[in-house]
Amino acid sequence: MKAIKLKVKYTRLGIIAEALLNYSEVCAIASITKNEKIADNFKIHLSIATELYYKLQERIAKRYPSETYKISMELHHAMILQSALLRFVNETQDDFKHNAIDIVKNELNNEIVNLSNITT
Fold first, then answer.
1. Would you list the domain boundaries of the chain?
2. Coil, strand or helix: which one is 58?
């Protein structure tokens, strides 16, 4: 499967990481349910969101960061990131964070649509 390459400015990496962390917390809470299928689904979402969070943290921790990054991810990673961004956009009150996440969310959506056009 072809990977999605999302171009992101360095200033937005921290906001994306925050969105993923919030989404991970929601998935952890939602995974505590009696329905086993739903719990397993949220556990998978939790593991993928956590993996993406730590990948972003590695890039943020670089001593001399570049201005833009290309984040390569598989389609299932992109879908989890998209869910996290959608949830974060609806919850945040900070206009700067809202606009930054909205830009990344739209770029990610375009990449997913382009990938789906290639595969069909």
1. 4-119
2. helix
